[in-house]
Design a protein that fits this description.
Helices cover 49% and strands 15% of the residues. It is an alpha/beta fold. The mean pLDDT is 95. Bound molecules: BIS(adenosine)-5'-pentaphosphate.
């Protein structure tokens, strides 16, 4: 599959992307995961991105497009991809459209995950993430706890709260989403690619996406 996942912070994009990727081997491309791994590594990209991310602001479009142009041309993308957290602004969506045309790639669908705001706030304050940059499994102390010792069930690394999980940064991320990312719903509706899913149960959402793709 070749799809984009849209949705507010905490809507479950990462969770749904991981389940879809297990289903048919399409690769999950999370710009958030790529940036967090760069911050952990302390490379140039990470140094530039960290302050934006910690505040809950978006990283500049030019930086993101450079990452995505290279990423989409890696060989694992030939099996299919699930874009999680990209595009995030109208300029990113326009640049992606041009890039996909240049690479002769056609998107199957743009999935919009709809989740009420109170559910999102609860999920973001209770999320935990594996600290291993090559794993980054997502947990939740209520709905999907890590081990009782606070380690990842997949790789054994400690699970942590992200640096952008302070109340102030969470509220800023939600405002940024409404101002900068929500307009993409209209953009992809016009392109005839958008499908919205009410997403309270990730497994049910994944089944609905699979059905919709094969219809
Ligand atoms: P990013 O990592 O993309 O963060 P986000 O969009 O804010 O999304 P989240 O990862 O917070 O949430 P999610 O929707 O993936 O939900 P999850 O599955 O974890 O980006 C971080 C930062 O990087 C940005 O703020 C920005 O600075 C920068 N950035 C990234 N991409 C960029 C771009 N393209 N342009 C510019 N800047 C960019 O689920 C949340 C929690 O809920 C988890 O605990 C999970 O276990 C739980 N949960 C999920 N589904 C369910 C369910 N059905 N039932 C119960 N619990 C559930």
């Amino acid at each position: 599959m070749k799809i984009i996942l849209l949705g507010a912070p905490g809507a479950g994009k990462g969770t749904v992307a991981k389940l879809l990727s297990e289903y048919d081997g399409s690769v999950q491309i999370s710009t958030g995961d790529i940036l967090r791994a760069a911050v952990k590594e302390g490379n140039e990209l990470g140094k530039e991105a960290k302050a934006y991310m910690d505040r809950g602001d978006l990283v500049p479009d030019s930086l993101i497009m450079k990452i995505m142009e290279a990423r989409l041309q890696e060989s694992d993308c030939k099996r299919g991809f699930i874009m999680d957290g990209f595009p995030r602004t109208i300029p990113q969506a326009e640049a992606l459209k041009e890039l996909l045309e240049r690479l002769s790639i056609t998107l199957d669908m743009v999935v919009n995950l709809e989740v009420p705001r109170e559910v999102i706030l609860d999920r973001l304050t209770t999320r935990r993430t594996c600290s291993n940059p090559s794993c980054q499994e997502i947990y939740n102390i209520k709905s999907k706890p890590p081990t009782p010792e606070g380690t990842c069930k997949k790789c054994g690394s400690p699970v942590i709260q992200r640096d952008d999980e302070t109340e102030e940064a969470i509220l800023n991320r939600l405002e940024t989403y409404n101002a900068m990312t929500a307009p993409l719903i209209g953009f992809y509706e016009k392109e005839g690619l958008l499908k919205s899913f009410k997403s309270l149960d990730s497994k049910a959402t994944v089944e609905a996406i699979k059905q919709s793709l094969s219809a």
